[in-house]
Each structure stands twice: as structure tokens, then as C-alpha cells.
Amino acid sequence: MSRVALVTGAGSGIGAAAAIRLSQGGLRVVLASRGAEALAATAAACPGPTLAIPADVTDPSAVDRLFDHAEDDWSPVEVLIVSAGAGFSARLERTSDADWNRMLELNLTAPFRCLRRAVPAMRAAGYGRIVVIASTASRVGEPYLAAYTASKHGVLGLVRAAAAELAGTGVTVNAVCPGFVDTPMTETTIGNIVQKTGRTTGQARSALEARQPIGRLITPQEVADAVWFCVASEAITGQAVNVDGGTVQS
């Protein structure tokens, strides 16, 4: 029987690409996201078995229900890809408590809950692969991104601590840190730039492309390949794998 993977944020963008890549690799894939229609589209693109479970991972009880459903229908999750996330941009003094808490809840607390729920079964089985989609904002500070950057720095710390704790158990924990990726989230960023600066959509997109030395946006499939790289190896753990066209050298 093939291994069971669970992907959050699987309805679009990086999460959908990662789910499809895992399915192509022969895994059974549990697809989680808030939108049932988007999950159906991802499931249709996966060549192997899928189980679509609508879930909002910011709901404190949703993570347990998600894992319970996967275990009841299939078996314990052996590969966990945490991709659900969102961005937010504002000057520091214009970042409200609600903005701050929203970024921490989705980008840090929800991944923590997913890891906490997944680890016991992985530890007991002597096998597990955990990959969190972080960001280049996990590695460097950027202006106007205080809440987002803090949440992404935090989730990289979570990854490193979990990897150190689980070393030698057969469970690996890594982060993939994309730059600007051609996803709906980046389209939202482009829209915000247009609204705030008066640039055209093309000019705003070009400005983001120019921030990456390769001169273009990263594709979701390129990020998914890095996810698969982490899943396929037992020797890689506690790492932050940059997929950013050379923006952050490490």
C-alpha cells in the first residue's frame, strides 16, 4: 500500500502543485483547503488516489478533525506538507493587532498544530516526512511585511526545533522557502502594488520579477520539485531550501 500524504492549502498555487507532484510520485494524497470546488480541481489533476477534505486550519479543532478523517478513511499520515498560508503588507505603525494575529494564526500556529498532530504516529512508525512552505521572508527582513515576516521567521524556527527533536527517529522536517511565485497570492500582491502606486499590472509584475536575479517569477512546479526533494531524502532535515532564483544566497 502506498504511503499517505496530507497537503494543506491544496486548492491552488504551491499546495496544489505539491499535491500533484506527490501523486505523480505514487503517494495517496489527502487534499485539504477551505474550498471544496478548488480541491476537486486539484484532485482531477492528480493521477493517483486522493481524498479531499475541506478544512480551515485556523479553526483550533479543524486540524484534529482533518487528521481523524484521513486516518479513518485511509491510515495515519506519513508525509505532511504544510502549504496553507497568506501574506499581508502594511507599514509597521499601520499593522493592527488583528492583522498581526491573523498572520501568526495561519502562518505559524496552524503549522504547529499540524506538526503536533502528525508527529506521534510518525514517531511510532519510525518514518515521516514534514515539509513546511515558508518564504524568503523566513530568512531576511523586508519593509512593510512585519507581521508576515515575523510569522515566517517563527515557522522556520519551528521546523528547526522539530528537526532537532526528531533526529534519529526516521522523521525529517524541512522548510522550502520560495521567493515570488506565480500564484494567486502573488497576483494579490500585484493588485496591491497597482492600487497603492498607480503602476499598471504589467509594471507591478515586472517589478517583482526584477527582484529575483533570474528575472522571472518562480513556478509552483519548481517549488513542488523542492518539496519532493525533501520528501525523497532521509539525510536532509532541519534545512531551509531556497527556491527564489538566487535572491537569498545561503
Write the layout of secondary structure elements.
Blueprint: E1 4-8, H1 13-24, E2 28-33, H2 36-45, E3 50-54, H3 62-73, E4 79-82, H4 97-125, E5 128-133, H5 146-166, E6 171-178, H6 184-197, H7 201-210, H8 220-232, E7 240-243
Parallel strand pairs: 1-2, 1-4, 2-3, 4-5, 5-6, 6-7
Question: Could you please describe the fold and organization of this structure?
Answer:
Helix content is 48%, strand content 15%. The protein is α/β, with parallel strands linked by helices. It has a single domain (4-179, 219-243), classed as Rossmann fold. α1 runs parallel beside α2, α1 (13-24) crosses α8 and α6 (184-197) crosses α7. It starts with a strand and ends in a 7-residue tail after the last strand.
Number of helices: 8
Portion in helices: 40-55%
User: Structural class of the helices, strands and pairings?
Assistant: alpha/beta
Task: Name the beta content range.
Answer: 15-25%
Tell me, rounded to a whole number, the average pLDDT: 96
In the CATH hierarchy, the third-tier topology is known as Rossmann fold
Q: What's the number of structural domains?
A: 1
Q: Which value, in Å, is the CA radius of gyration? A: 17 Å
Question: Uncertain runs with pLDDT below 50, 5 residues or more?
Answer: none
